[in-house]
Amino acid sequence: MQAPTKQTQVAATRSTQPRRTARPEGRYLFAGVSVASIWVAVALASIWSPDMTTGTQHDHLAIASFADWLYAALATGLVLMAFGRRTPGASRSLWLGFTVAVACIWLAVAVASIFAPTLVTGTDPTTIPIAAFAAPIGGILATAFASVFAAGSQGRDVTDER
Questions:
Q1: Counting CB atoms within 10 angstroms of each CB, which of 20, 66, 90, 147 has the fewest?
Q2: Exposed, middle or buried by CB within 10 Å (0-12, 13-18, 19+), for 30?
Q3: Cβ neighbour number for residue 25 with a 10 Å cutoff
Q4: Are 38 and 75 in contact, with CB atoms under 8 Å apart?
Q5: Domain for residue 66, yes or no?
């Protein structure tokens, strides 16, 4: 009988399980989609939200165009804070769920800003689009809650998979 050679010893100690390769994290794609959804919603609301109309000359003031970029900048900071966490066990489903939540929040902000009724007061009608004021603030609060949830979620422990 032949003595085992070095080549057969190496082949016998190889694992039959597939080797896991390091792949780039998908959270950067989710972060980009989240931020883009915020800014697209704000752009839509800025373009098509009703203006505030005041005075005897019926002066128009685009409230959404003036204020919404500030709310979008704050929401972008909150989203990037959540994506900036370094938990190695965070799953793609966490980031996907967070991205869908942020996109739905800001879609609701845009729809409310555009289609919600306006407040009309006085004999010289002053038109105030209340939703253009309130919807972005609600969007910031909802984004903050979602961001804190995503940033504070426990990742999977890598030892649990074995």
A1: 20
A2: buried
A3: 14
A4: yes
A5: yes
Residue 32 domain-assigned (yes or no): yes
Q: What is the pTM of this model?
A: 0.78
pLDDT higher for 154 or 96?
96
The tokens describing 152, both together, are 């504070």
Could you tell me if residue 16 is inside a domain? no
* Residue 123, CA distances (Å) to 54, 59, 152 in order: 11, 15, 52
CB 37 within 8 A of CB 107: yes
Integer CA distances (angstroms), 21 to 24, 52, 90, 95, in order: 10, 56, 17, 21
Domain interval for residue 73: 26-152
Question: What residues contact residue 146 under an 8 Å CB cut-off, 6+ apart?
Answer: 82, 98, 101, 102, 105
Confidence at residue 38, expressed as pLDDT on a 0 to 100 scale: 98
